[in-house]
Amino acid sequence: MGAEKINQTLPSGLKLVGSPEGIEGPGFFATSLDKVVGMARKNSIWPLPFATSCCGIEFMATMGAHYDLGRFGSERLSFSPRQADLLMVMGTIAKKMAPILRQVYEQMAEPRWVIAVGACASSGGIFDTYSVLQGIDKVIPVDVYVPGCPPRPEQIIDGVLKIQQLVENESLSRRESPEYKARLAQYGIE
Amino acid sequence: MSNKAITEPIKEEKEYSTLNLGPTHPATHGIFQNVLKMDGEIIMDSDATIGYIHRAFEKIAERRPYYQITTLTDRLNYCSSPINNMGWEMTVEKLLGVEIPKRVDYMRVIVMEMARLADHIVCNTVIGVDTGALSGFVYMFQWREKIYEFYEEICGARLTTNIGRIGGFERDFTDKTWKQIDEFLEEFPRILKEFEGLLMRNRIFMDRTKGAGPIAADLALNYGFTGPNLRAAGVDYDVRVMNPYSSYQDFDFIVPVGTKGDTYDRFLVRQEEMWQSMSIIKQAVQKLQSMPPGPHHADVPEFYLPPKQDVYNNMEALIYHFKVIMGELEVPKGEVYHSVEGGNGELGFYLISDGGRSPFRLHFRRPCFIYYQGYADMIKGSMLSDAILTLSSMNVIAGELDA
Amino acid sequence: MSLTNETVGQKLIERFGEAILGDEQQYDFRIWTVKREKIYEIIQYLYHEPGLEYQFLTTLCGIHYPDNAPDKTMCIMYQLHNLPKNHRIRLKVFFSENDKVMPSITAIFRTSNWMEREAYDFYGVVFKGHPNLKKILNMEEQTVFPLLKYFPLEDPTRDDKDDTMFGRKMFNA
User: Fold this and answer.
1) Which helix (H) or strand (E) holds C10?
2) What is this model's ipTM?
3) Which of the ends of chain C has fewer CB neighbours closer than 10 A, N or C?
4) Count of domains forming chain A
5) Nearest Cα to Cα of residue A144 among A160, A132, A155, A167
6) What would the DSSP string read from start to end of B152-203?
7) Which of C153, C161, C166 sits opposite A130 (nearest CB)?
8) Segment B52-62, tens digit of pLDDT
9) What is the CATH number assigned to the segment(s) B57-402?
10) Within a domain: residue A20?
11) Residue C117 is part of which domain span?
């Protein structure tokens, strides 16, 4: 007896978000806190669109009605770093822009994730020049890379879904753990 | 609400606040910074910093063969990349002295006008978004997807199209392409009219945009404005009419001109240009259907990749294929300048060739870079929200600004 | 009287004599090479003279010719346009790259403000009389002028790209 009754598939084939595994009874449902928090977080990620160039236009198309990132819970864009969960870096980051990107990342509150959309954000892309930062992972830690120049909206959605998997399966104490702190220390972020 | 002229000079004793309209700001569409000196809500002075996305295109172009530069030109004004691609190919064709058949010219006109539609859709809907009218954006972007489907059919990519070759196109328009164009021409006018109905005579929109960021015609000319921003100020300079390229002289279209150069005029000019673009596409389709079928490229095997069956069967085609892929085109020495009417104005390519496989110097005359200088003058004395509107109505694309 | 390359050339030589060093025709443009000392007056003359009136500056850019004679290694190109009569001309000024100074034309054309800053940023050409000559596109801390031919294109800190495979050489020979 478990979660089958609650995981619904609608007649159209659409799967609703099911409940996590747990023990159910009349008037109560017991599961672990990790799973509930993971489920809630994953379906309500507030992205911060850091759109600099061409990938930003594909992001606008992704947020539009045709591809609709909003159906995965990311309807509310937050331009304030304090209120955002996911930093979506879309477009080329020049070396002039790198300190600003770093500042925005540091202003974000934990838990925070970073997705590098596009070839330029992942590795500098086609611009192997003196003025372009060869990948944002030189200044901030990145969770998911989406290749493409520009990636199709479906690819961007795929990247966000992978972030959702990371969010769902993250343990609640990860942000305090020494491994995470060591990772941030690598970048010089406290 | 008209712009208050600054009648009092900036006094040293008075306290002005400084506001950093920073590089990452939701309302500046692109990354550029403006440090504003404000007297309450009125802007007294501003200082712009750009270069946050400087990718050194002009330096890269000195290291890449001619075909690889097409991918760079895509990323200049990325809302209408086919125009940049075709402009670059026309520049190289001018250098090489390649004659383009009429059929290819008309096909190019269709693609360029579709790109102009895509660019103006972005700009006008974003003016709506900045005044708070988000519905127009959501509806029109659905139709922008149709333009993307058209691009995908002719070249395979949605945004950074890298379309065309020296001499024409890499493949002919398929039946599906013609169907897509016909459907678009039938259905988009209704949507455009709906969008107009939402905003054009809307009391709130008119009150917000009339008088926001005006510029006089002679100041605009001195600042080097071109494109819809200049036409909104009253000067009818359109490269398609002045220096026609790609057989634009065979088409019958109006160049809309405004009077005051404020945001409302810029909106109206772009709106009318969208109608004119659709009329041009219609005329081009009629002309193409009344012409006998022909090639989709000029007969220049030294610069155009030959079709694969020739490469495998014909020795000359194999040699040309190898040379073109390796970038060893025989280019004469010389310097050439060619300009096209991009979404924002005169996009010029100044190419100096020394006979080698890459250009000796390639300079892009980028309209956004040139007219953004005038922004400081346009917002003097206006309020902050009007400054944001002015910025979005100028259609500053960061890729073209910094290059 | 209609505006042609010949009438412009005639008027320029009448007025400025030996400051006009030569002219050539490249495709559909007539290019006049002029002396650096007179470039401001020449452009002013072209702007104000009735019958000429080149009142639109299309573009301005720097060009580096490392293989030229030592006093002609650096060039600034101006492209002017007479909109009513639809005529375009080009002016070039050559000077040595060890003496990269030019007069600024911001007083005549406001549009040349940022164009000259870009030429300064890319080549190091100092424009005397410019109201705000500082770097525009590159970072403030950068001290080299990147578009000179000696400067490499690629990012020097990148160590994962194999130079033999990627052809990251100084000159794309």
Assistant:
1) helix C5-16
2) 0.91
3) N
4) 1
5) A160
6) HHHHS-SSS----BTTB-SS---HHHHHHHHHHHHHHHHHHHHHHHHHTT-H
7) C153
8) 999 989 999 99
9) 1.10.645.10
10) no
11) 5-142
